[in-house]
Amino acid sequence: MAADGSHRSFDSAALLFALFFLILLTLHLPLLRLPYFWDEAGYYVPAAHDLLLHGTLIPQSTPSNAHPPLVMVYLALAWKGLGYAPAVTRIAMLAIAAFSLLGVFRLAQRVANTEVAIASAICTALYPVFFAQSSLAHLDLAAAGLTIWGLLAYVEGRNAATAFWFSLAVLTKETAILAPIAVFIWTLASAGLGKKFSQFSQMPEDSPVATSRFPSLIALLVPLLPLSLWYAYHFLRTSFVFGNPEFFRYNVQATMEPMRILLAVFLRLWQVLGYMNLYLLTLPALGAMFLVPLCDRGEERLRIAVPTQLSFLVVILAYVIAMAVVGGAVLARYMLPVLPLVIIVMVSTLHRRVRMWRGVIAIVVLAFVAALFVNPPYGFSIEDNLAYRDYIQMHQHAADFVEAHYPMARVLTAWPGNDELTRPYLGYVTRPMRVVRIENFTIEELTTAKNMRGTFDVALVFSTKYQPVHSWFESWQTWQEWKTRYFGYHRDVPPAAAAQILGGHIVHSEARDGQWASVIEMDRVEEAWADRHVDAHRSCQR
């Protein structure tokens, strides 16, 4: 009978996975053939491509960032079996997203009920950051899914599975170690409170959430071993433990200022409580705490066990604090491992206390879908909704123009434009072009480039920061100074001004909702072509 139950459980899980994957695949169909974007093009795809070609876990075509290699191995295997193409990459990542949603569903079903699980999975799938990251070759969504599976195994008291899933998570991204370490500390701290929590918990007193059994603690420490082995291997191959010096400086050394950490904490809290219309879920749920629980057939609807909620809270706080201390870019995708925990708890609270909770969830889902297409009235990372599609398409059009009209030209541009033009396997050009790289498109960088005019023929300039037409915080001078000092903010020079500084004229330009990309031809190129045309005409006359 136990075998039959296990078989049925596996069948239902496989069916749910197939359903999630089919839905995600259908919704992402217009995005599957897009070339690679930003960090995809700058690191993860080149690293996986090196593994495919050379069989090395340490990338050769780009400086190593010391990220564990599991996702790159997965992509190299997918390309080996199905062929190298952006569509293969994106479908492979969608499979990871579907598996992550299955974990969200199973965790919510385990700690709450099936209704909460369905609503939590839908909200997670359509939350703009999760949706946008679902088909991108980044590490964070995969780490999030494996972390959720690790937490599910922990809640269920399956020690071997806990160690297994958390170990895979840390081999996906090193910051995934935060979850098992946070739970380990919480389990130790709550050891003496197990009996006190049991009156709230609706779970067996021997659950690892309510007591600190030795095997559970060991299971939470096991992931340290594969992560340590990876760093040891990385050090032996590169002489660096935590990535190349510039990567370590940007993500660790340059972030250790108290004011920056404080500001980053507020940004991280916003990302897990309000960002991209998430406040439409969290605020009603917090307000619902003042309502009495609903009853079904005379019995009060159950809450998520208090020890479980507290363990979730500990993991969330660990990510908020740690991701405020390290990480040069305060990207919302870094918080994906804890986003489903917030959603599950908030949905469960609404289900327990609000009679029309399904209506609230419907409004939240509609708000999430709207946020996919409508950019917020403040600066944000364009990888957090479908704005990244606009970026890719504009860069694809600009690269096509440069390759068609200036195939032998030297192109001035900034990262990641230089990678897009020099690595054909990224999907922007058919052959490598010659590139002169600058850091960005500020006045200072363009003025410096002007003094190098003889080294480039055309310029591919583009917006590196999203800039809304009417930003809410544009007039808040202090915030502008904080962004510039602590978070690397800069203002890109518009295309017309860039052309004037560089001494050229715009030959191609495209703009979409706060983003733009333009090609500038240096005036001397036009003059040289005119001289060449005159020489050819004189030759014909002779």
Secondary structure layout plus pairing:
Blueprint: H1 2-27, H2 39-54, H3 70-82, H4 86-111, H5 114-126, H6 128-133, H7 140-155, H8 159-172, H9 178-189, H10 194-201, H11 214-221, H12 224-238, H13 245-251, H14 258-273, H15 279-288, E1 295-296, E2 299-300, H16 306-325, H17 339-353, H18 357-373, H19 387-405, E3 410-414, H20 417-422, E4 434-438, H21 443-450, E5 458-462, H22 477-486, H23 495-502, E6 504-512, E7 515-522, H24 523-541
Parallel strand pairs: 3-4, 3-5
Antiparallel strand pairs: 1-2, 5-7, 6-7
Helix pairs in contact: 1-4, 2-3, 3-4, 4-5, 4-7, 5-17, 5-18, 7-8, 8-11, 9-11, 9-16, 14-16, 15-17, 16-17, 17-18
* DSSP helical segment count: 24
Please, what is the average pLDDT? 90
Rg over CA atoms: 26 Å
**Distance, first to last CA:** 98 Å
Helix fraction bin: 55-70%
Percent of residues in beta strands? 5-15%
Strand tally: 7
Q: Spans of 5+ residues with little confidence (pLDDT < 50)? A: 197-206, 525-537
Protein structure class:
alpha/beta
Strand order of the largest sheet: 4-3-5-7-6
How many discrete domains?
Answer: 2
Describe the protein's architecture and organization.
The protein is an alpha/beta fold. It has two domains: 23-374, no CATH class; 387-530, Rossmann fold. Helix content is 61%, strand content 7%. The chain has 24 helices and seven strands. A five-stranded mixed sheet has the order 4-3-5-7-6. The radius of gyration is 26 Å and the shape is globular. It starts with a helix and ends with a helix. Residues 197-206 and 525-537 have low confidence and may be disordered.
